Give the backbone structure.
Amino acid sequence: MAIQWFPGHMNLTKKAISERIKDTDVVIELLDARLPGSSANPMLAELTGSRPALKVLNKQDLADPSRTALWLAHYNSLPDTRAIGLDASETAPSRRLISACRELAPLRGGMVKPMRVLICGIPNVGKSTLINTLTGKRAAKTGDEAGITKLEQRISLADDFYLYDTPGMLWPRIIVAKSGYNLAASGAIGRNAFNEEEVALELLDYLIQHYPAAVEARYSLQIAPGMKDEQLLEEIGRKRGALLGKGRINLQKAAEIVIHDFRNSGLGRATLETPEEFATWLKAGQTLDAERQVKKDAIELKRLIKFKKVPRPEA
């Protein structure tokens, strides 16, 4: 199943970013520390061009710390890029954000040349919560649901430091299949765009391989050698009382339990991808996408030839 979700207001956000970027010195991209690669918007690089970038791995208190370190090292190795981690326990993150932005754009600052920073991120990555922490007041609406923020707003973090907030935005087509599942598991995609059971199965398949002890502890069960995700989901449903008549398992309810536990750290600190894994998924997705485009172009060429829009190529 290919998961896609791009509501109309996200297209408006794309246009707003295209306009705002002309007067932007640094772009902050808020990432989910549990899925840094999947939560990085590939369309943002096209929109922002060569602007210096600050990658903020948010919710690091929910992520595997050893993997967070790998992702920070990965992003800090890129040109004109800084990366830092943030979590809910940090009560005054503005100092670190301002300092990192000033390092990326040292020639900006002061009332004559104030720093102009654009903050972006996928839906439900915690951007509105962060902004409320930065400002010390409820400047942005929050909620455990994708697509809360709908309008751009400007926030002053210092006399010469302006932060422009934008609504959460995904990209029109997700070519990395695994990213679609990870984004759905994190809450970045609207519920009507995916099947909870399929997402839970993909999530359990990964957790069996990388965090089996956390799954066993959460659901008081044993993962037998060779146990499949379908079997595990049924066992979780049985343990948690997700039952239908005649002892049948309510797989929908069991899936909702698993997804809820991941989102709320009930399964402990887990990260669903490493830089190396994501690079492999991305390469495979790009290859598949290129093959799909070749087939699409061939179909379009046949259509144009049929209706004599273009001449038939010579043998």
